[in-house]
Structure of Molybdopterin synthase sulfur carrier subunit:
Amino acid sequence: MENNGLVVKEDTIQIIRGDMMKVLYFAHIKAKLDRTEDQFTFAEPITVQQFRNHLYETYPIIQSEKFQIAVNEEFVRDEDIINNQDTVALIPPVSGG
C-alpha cells in the first residue's frame, strides 16, 4: 500500500490502528512463561486451533499444559474464529477447597 509516496506494509497499518490481539496468561502458564500478557497480529482471522498451534510453536514449554481459551471473556471451541482486535485468555483448570 502506498501512502503519500511511502510504501507501507499492511501489517504495519494494522499495528498503527491498534489491531493487535491481546493475550493474557494466568497461574502456572504465567509462571512458566514469566509474563502476564503478549500481543500478536495475524494477516487474517484464525481459528482457536490455529492460535493454539501458534502458541505451541512460539512457547514449546506450554505444549503439555492444560488450559481453555476464552475470547472476549467467553469460552470458545477450537473451530471458533479469533480476530486481531480480540482479547484472548488462557484459563488453566481451577481447583477449589
User: Anything to note?
Assistant: Residues 20-91 form a domain with the Ubiquitin-like (UB roll) fold (CATH 3.10.20.30).
